[in-house]
Protein backbone atom coordinates (compact mmCIF):
# COMPACT_ATOMS: atom_id res chain seq x y z
CA UNK A 1 0.00 0.00 0.00
CA UNK A 2 1.30 3.41 -0.96
CA UNK A 3 2.02 5.86 1.86
CA UNK A 4 0.52 9.33 1.79
CA UNK A 5 3.09 12.11 1.61
CA UNK A 6 3.16 13.80 5.08
CA UNK A 7 3.12 17.24 3.47
CA UNK A 8 -0.51 16.67 2.51
CA UNK A 9 -1.44 16.46 6.19
CA UNK A 10 0.26 19.82 6.65
CA UNK A 11 -1.84 21.21 3.78
CA UNK A 12 -5.09 19.98 5.36
CA UNK A 13 -4.12 21.35 8.78
CA UNK A 14 -3.15 24.67 7.18
CA UNK A 15 -6.52 24.85 5.42
CA UNK A 16 -8.26 24.32 8.76
CA UNK A 17 -6.14 27.06 10.37
CA UNK A 18 -6.93 29.45 7.52
CA UNK A 19 -10.65 28.64 7.73
CA UNK A 20 -10.75 29.08 11.49
CA UNK A 21 -8.82 32.33 11.72
CA UNK A 22 -10.45 34.11 8.80
CA UNK A 23 -13.86 32.58 9.43
CA UNK A 24 -13.80 34.02 12.94
CA UNK A 25 -12.57 37.38 11.69
CA UNK A 26 -15.22 37.73 9.00
CA UNK A 27 -17.94 36.63 11.41
CA UNK A 28 -17.38 39.86 13.31
CA UNK A 29 -19.85 41.65 11.03
CA UNK A 30 -22.61 39.32 12.24
CA UNK A 31 -22.17 40.84 15.70
CA UNK A 32 -22.77 44.45 14.58
CA UNK A 33 -26.55 44.40 15.24
CA UNK A 34 -25.92 42.86 18.65
CA UNK A 35 -23.45 45.60 19.61
CA UNK A 36 -25.85 48.24 18.29
CA UNK A 37 -28.78 46.84 20.25
CA UNK A 38 -26.87 46.17 23.46
CA UNK A 39 -24.75 49.31 23.71
CA UNK A 40 -26.30 51.77 21.25
CA UNK A 41 -23.01 52.10 19.36
CA UNK A 42 -23.03 53.27 15.76
CA UNK A 43 -21.72 51.03 13.00
CA UNK A 44 -18.84 53.44 12.39
CA UNK A 45 -17.72 53.04 15.99
CA UNK A 46 -17.88 49.25 15.78
CA UNK A 47 -16.15 49.23 12.37
CA UNK A 48 -13.11 50.94 13.85
CA UNK A 49 -12.35 47.69 15.70
CA UNK A 50 -11.98 45.87 12.36
CA UNK A 51 -9.88 48.70 10.95
CA UNK A 52 -7.64 48.62 14.00
CA UNK A 53 -7.41 44.84 13.63
CA UNK A 54 -6.12 45.19 10.05
CA UNK A 55 -3.68 47.92 11.01
CA UNK A 56 -2.24 45.92 13.91
CA UNK A 57 -2.12 42.80 11.73
CA UNK A 58 -0.18 44.65 9.04
CA UNK A 59 2.40 45.74 11.58
CA UNK A 60 2.56 42.48 13.52
CA UNK A 61 3.24 40.19 10.53
CA UNK A 62 6.72 41.66 10.20
CA UNK A 63 7.54 40.65 13.75
CA UNK A 64 5.65 37.36 13.47
CA UNK A 65 7.70 36.45 10.40
CA UNK A 66 10.95 37.03 12.24
CA UNK A 67 9.65 35.17 15.27
CA UNK A 68 8.59 32.26 13.05
CA UNK A 69 12.09 32.09 11.58
CA UNK A 70 13.57 32.07 15.07
CA UNK A 71 11.15 29.81 17.01
CA UNK A 72 9.40 27.89 14.25
CA UNK A 73 5.79 28.04 13.09
CA UNK A 74 4.49 25.56 15.67
CA UNK A 75 5.30 27.78 18.65
CA UNK A 76 4.33 31.04 17.01
CA UNK A 77 0.97 29.71 15.83
CA UNK A 78 0.28 28.13 19.23
CA UNK A 79 0.99 31.41 21.03
CA UNK A 80 -0.97 33.41 18.47
CA UNK A 81 -3.92 31.02 18.79
CA UNK A 82 -3.98 31.49 22.56
CA UNK A 83 -3.93 35.28 22.12
CA UNK A 84 -6.59 35.09 19.39
CA UNK A 85 -8.80 32.90 21.56
CA UNK A 86 -8.26 35.20 24.54
CA UNK A 87 -9.31 38.18 22.43
CA UNK A 88 -12.54 36.44 21.43
CA UNK A 89 -13.17 35.16 24.95
CA UNK A 90 -12.77 38.65 26.37
CA UNK A 91 -15.03 39.96 23.59
CA UNK A 92 -17.89 38.29 25.46
CA UNK A 93 -17.21 40.59 28.43
CA UNK A 94 -17.11 43.88 26.50
CA UNK A 95 -19.07 46.75 28.06
CA UNK A 96 -17.19 49.78 26.73
CA UNK A 97 -16.01 50.63 23.23
CA UNK A 98 -12.36 50.63 24.27
CA UNK A 99 -12.82 47.01 25.40
CA UNK A 100 -13.97 46.19 21.88
CA UNK A 101 -10.94 47.93 20.40
CA UNK A 102 -8.60 46.11 22.78
CA UNK A 103 -10.12 42.63 22.37
CA UNK A 104 -10.89 42.58 18.67
CA UNK A 105 -8.68 45.35 17.38
CA UNK A 106 -5.45 44.77 19.28
CA UNK A 107 -5.41 41.20 20.64
CA UNK A 108 -6.96 39.61 17.57
CA UNK A 109 -4.99 41.94 15.30
CA UNK A 110 -1.67 40.93 16.82
CA UNK A 111 -2.38 37.27 16.38
CA UNK A 112 -4.36 37.04 13.13
CA UNK A 113 -1.30 37.61 10.97
CA UNK A 114 0.23 34.41 12.32
CA UNK A 115 -2.17 32.25 10.35
CA UNK A 116 -0.68 33.35 7.03
CA UNK A 117 2.94 33.59 8.12
CA UNK A 118 2.97 30.16 9.76
CA UNK A 119 0.83 28.15 7.35
CA UNK A 120 2.26 29.51 4.12
CA UNK A 121 5.89 29.32 5.24
CA UNK A 122 5.36 25.75 6.45
CA UNK A 123 3.80 24.43 3.24
CA UNK A 124 6.47 26.23 1.22
CA UNK A 125 9.08 24.11 3.02
CA UNK A 126 7.25 20.87 2.27
CA UNK A 127 6.56 21.51 -1.41
CA UNK A 128 9.06 22.65 -4.00
CA UNK A 129 7.56 21.58 -7.31
CA UNK A 130 3.92 22.57 -6.90
CA UNK A 131 4.41 25.35 -4.36
CA UNK A 132 2.04 27.80 -6.08
CA UNK A 133 -0.75 25.23 -6.37
CA UNK A 134 -0.35 24.11 -2.77
CA UNK A 135 -0.34 27.71 -1.52
CA UNK A 136 -3.55 28.29 -3.46
CA UNK A 137 -5.12 25.20 -1.92
CA UNK A 138 -4.15 26.37 1.57
CA UNK A 139 -5.62 29.83 0.94
CA UNK A 140 -8.84 28.20 -0.30
CA UNK A 141 -9.35 27.21 3.33
CA UNK A 142 -9.70 30.91 4.08
CA UNK A 143 -12.51 31.22 1.55
CA UNK A 144 -14.31 28.23 3.01
CA UNK A 145 -14.05 29.68 6.51
CA UNK A 146 -15.19 33.11 5.36
CA UNK A 147 -18.21 31.54 3.67
CA UNK A 148 -19.32 29.03 6.28
CA UNK A 149 -18.39 30.37 9.71
CA UNK A 150 -20.56 33.52 9.54
CA UNK A 151 -23.54 31.26 8.82
CA UNK A 152 -22.72 29.19 11.89
CA UNK A 153 -22.28 32.28 14.05
CA UNK A 154 -25.61 33.70 12.83
CA UNK A 155 -27.33 30.44 13.75
CA UNK A 156 -25.76 30.49 17.22
CA UNK A 157 -26.90 34.05 17.87
From TrEMBL:
Keyword 4Fe-4S part of the UniProt annotation: no
Residues passing through the membrane, by range: 7-33, 45-63, 75-92, 98-123
The protein's name: Major facilitator superfamily (MFS) profile domain-containing protein
Family annotation (InterPro entries): MFS (IPR011701), MFS_dom (IPR020846), MFS_trans_sf (IPR036259), Proton-linked_MCT (IPR050327)
The keyword NAD appears for this protein: no
Domain Major facilitator superfamily (MFS) profile: 1-157
Any single Pfam family the record assigns to this protein: MFS_1
Cross-referenced PANTHER family: EG:103B4.3 PROTEIN-RELATED, MONOCARBOXYLATE TRANSPORTER
Keywords: Membrane, Transmembrane, Transmembrane helix
One Gene Ontology term of the molecular function aspect: transmembrane transporter activity
Amino acid sequence: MKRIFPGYYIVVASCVVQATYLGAFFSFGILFPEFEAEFGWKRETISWAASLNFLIMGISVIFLGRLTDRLGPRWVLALASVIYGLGYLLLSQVNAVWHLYLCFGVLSGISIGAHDVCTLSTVARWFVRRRGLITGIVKSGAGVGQSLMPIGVAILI
